[in-house]
Design brief:
By secondary structure, the chain is α+β, with helices and mostly antiparallel strands. Helix content is about 15%, strand content about 35%. The strands form 2 sheets. A 5-stranded mixed sheet has the order 3-2-1-5-7, with no helix packed on it. Strands 4-9-8-6 form a 4-stranded mixed sheet, with no helix packed on it. The model is unreliable at about 5-30 (pLDDT under 50).
Length: about 140
């Protein structure tokens, strides 16, 4: 049966199209959690007890406990969430905006936390809130 070959070829084509689309949107790969951001990128590190605004936000670098992180970005920014040193599960959910987003739970007992990364395209102006279901830490992306 030759169908799996065709299906595999189709999957490769879809992946190539997605990669070209992301590149055309200005997404130049996944930035490192400790490096500076490219234009239209922002990085938030998720830790067990706090959030860290790394780069890409008008407000600059900082650490936040509770629902206090604010990050002002331009329309079309991609925000990357990293989980560099977590020891328990974290689940980030976008709770407002036209297209609320959610990420799968990040469980450090199942994989190396240094490999965890999530991203969300902020393509609608306004305030977009998010929170970690396990810790309650969160904040607001202000998209202009």
């Amino acid at each position: 049966m030759k169908r799996p070959v065709g299906l595999a070829a189709y999957k490769i084509q879809v992946i190539a199209i997605i990669a070209l689309f992301l590149q055309s949107c200005g997404i130049q790969g996944t930035p490192s959690p400790s490096k500076s951001c490219a234009t239209n990128q922002a990085i938030v590190n998720v830790h067990d007890t706090y959030l860290e605004r790394v780069c890409g936000c008008a407000e600059g670098r900082g650490t936040f406990i509770g629902n206090t992180l604010q990050c002002t970005v331009s329309l079309g920014t991609v925000v990357f969430f990293y989980y560099p040193d977590i020891t328990f599960m974290h689940t980030i959910l976008g709770s407002s905006g036209v297209n609320p987003w959610s990420f799968s739970p990040k469980d450090p007992t199942q994989a190396n936390p240094a490999t965890f990364v999530d991203s969300a395209l902020l393509n609608v102006t306004g305030n977009h809130t998010f929170a970690d279901q396990q810790t309650g830490n969160g904040g607001t992306f202000i998209v202009q």
